Amino acid sequence: MTAAKMGHTILIVEDNELNTEMLRRRLEKRGYNVVDERDGNQVKPLLDQFHPDMILMDLSLPGMDGWTLAGILKADPETSSIPIVAVTAHAMPGDREKALQAGCDDYITKPIDFQLLIRTIERFLNLSPAGDRPGSP
Ligand code: MN
Predict the structure, then answer these.
(1) Strand order of the sheet with strand 9-13?
(2) Contact between residue 39 and residue 14 where contact means Cβ atoms under 8 Å apart
(3) What is the Å distance from ligand 1's center to 62 Cα?
(4) Distance of CA 15 from the midpoint of ligand 1 (Å)
(5) How far is the centre of ligand 1, averaged over its atoms, from the C-alpha of 119 (Å)?
(6) How far is the CA of 14 from the centre of ligand 1 (A)?
(7) pLDDT tens track, the chain, 137 positions
């Protein structure tokens, strides 16, 4: 019942347009609604208007950086429950811990392993693991 995925909305916060469009295309193909924003300063105002089911967030952003933004979103009861997955080229030792300490719920490095990304999304959305499940009732 892949229709369970329909209607989930993912906010992509990313300033690289090619990355955004690649993610949008692949996520929409799987039935997700995608909203994107490139400027870190615009994310909080955007979230006053709608509530995504999760956020995929680059960390190096124009405006406000992703570490600061994650901290702000997690400090606000209106947005604290939205899972944030950092999607970042910051892949040095300690970068994962830094992202998690800033408030991100998980961390994926670029270049993106798309299967890992999908598994991570489905875990946060409490969906069944990706893949065919022939014979499932
Ligand atoms: Mn960036």
Answers:
(1) 33-37, 9-13, 54-57, 84-88, 106-109
(2) no
(3) 7
(4) 5
(5) 23
(6) 6
(7) 344 456 899 999 999 999 999 999 999 999 999 999 999 999 999 999 999 999 999 999 999 999 999 999 999 999 999 999 999 999 899 999 999 999 999 999 999 999 999 999 999 998 755 444 444 44
Gap from CA of 134 to ligand 1 centroid (Å): 40
- Determine the distance separating the centroid of ligand 1 and the alpha carbon of 75, expressed in angstroms: 23
> How is 49-110 classified by DSSP, letter by letter?
T---SEEEE-SS-SSS-HHHHHHHHHHSTTTTTS-EEEEES--STTHHHHHHHHT-SEEEES
Q: Which two tokens stand for residue 75?
A: 């400090």
**In the structure encoding, which two tokens stand for residue 79, read together?**
């947005």
86, 108 contact by CB (below 8 A) = yes
> What pairs with residue 109 in β-bridges?
88
